[in-house]
Structure formats: C-alpha cells, structure tokens
Amino acid sequence: MSAIILDGSMVHYEALGRGRPIIFLHGWVGSWRYWINAMQVASTSFRAYALDLYGFGDTVRDPMRYSLDQQADLVHGFLEEMGIGKVAIVGHDLGALVGFSFLKKWHSSVDRMMVINCPMEYEALNVRMRTTPATELADWLTGRAPDSMSALADASKADPKAAAASFENLQSDNLFPSIRNLGVPCLFVYGSNNPAVTIPPQEKVDALPMHMHQINLEGAGHFPMLDNPAQFNRLLTDFLALESGISPKELQLKEEWKRRVR
Question: What's residue 251's pLDDT?
Fold first, then answer.
C-alpha cells in the first residue's frame, strides 16, 4: 500500500506504469480498487494513479474535508506533492464531480477528462443512491456478480457522511455551467442500463460545446469498467490516444459503441 501525508492526513493511492500521468477517481461505492483493470491497461502508455478520496477506502476519515472542494484540494495536493504536471482525469460518479471541482479551480492542469455516469444535476441521481448504505448499493448495482463484488470490497469502509456532504454540494451547486466553457476536452460516458443516474436527454447532449462529447454504452450499468472491461478499456484507450486538445467528437465510431450520441 502506498500513502502520502497531505496537511497532516494520510491519503492512500496506488500507481502503475510509466509515461504521461493519468489519475482515476472512484465513486460513492467502493474505492481505488475497482480501477485495477483499467489502470493495468492504461499503464502500458501512462503512469496511472488511483486515489482513495477522504472518507473512502484507506484514506483518513475527516468530516471537515468531505466537501467537493476539499476533495478537489486533495487531488491538487497529491499532484503537487508527487510533482505531477498536466494530467488526464478519469472520474466515476462522485469522482467525476470531484474532477469537475478540480477543473473549476485548476483547469490549466487538466489535459482531458473522462466522466463516467455522473449526475449532471441533483434530480438525476436515484433517491436510493442518496439513502442506502454503500454495501447495499454494491449489491443493487452489480447484481452480486462475484468479480464485481470483489472489486467493490471496500464499500464497507465508506463514511456515510462523506457521501452526504457531496450530495448536499450537488444539490446546492450545479458545477457544469462553470466548467463547460473552459475548453478542456471532456468525454461523458453513460451505461444504458444504469439505474442510479439518469442519462442526460438528447437536447442537453445536442447543446454540448465542441470540445465535449457523450457516448452511451449499450448494455452497461453503473460500473461499465466492471460490467464489460474490454469495451470500457477500448474506449478509454482510444480517448487517451487522441492528441492533446482534440475534441472527443473525433473518436472513430467502433462496433462496441453503436449508441454513440452526436
């Protein structure tokens, strides 16, 4: 286990590979652990990092640091401590919101973002996500598939106060308007069978700026990196292979994601 001390508190992370940096941010259910497969794929060309956010996994519990801004400060502190410059961010639900908060403050430090099953507004989040313990959510969202449950083994470590703080932030502050015009390439990915988050309607997709793009993965649920790793990793690899500054709209249409949204 790797860890660093930020402002007197322990932050757990894992790292693989060499090359340009990419950071994986987990969601409300689980920890860094469910990124292992994606990290292994990315590590062939990138230095892949995965963090446990405050209140999750093996990072310290501290209710004073559970806001989205404080979680973004964790990411910023980690990058500074590790001497990491411009970075690609891959964030899943909560991790995507933390990525948005980071982007709002330090957009010049972000090369690109992949945003997975992120509620774009509070009402898009299923009420069960806001009221059910993480261990029960893991059962619900994976159908208790053995491999997925193993990847989400750290769900029991989540501090409910950490999730509650982020829900409160999401309800009070819609982050998207403040980051949509920053010019950082963003790929939004949604599972078509995800019961936890409502997919943005077509009119909102059509209104995305040129540097943003959405793809809906047919048959995937809330954890596309676990539901169909080959499909997810192919999309991740293609996105990371784009030249810096290129819109994800330039992704070539693949058989794996026929439900690409224009």
Answer: 86
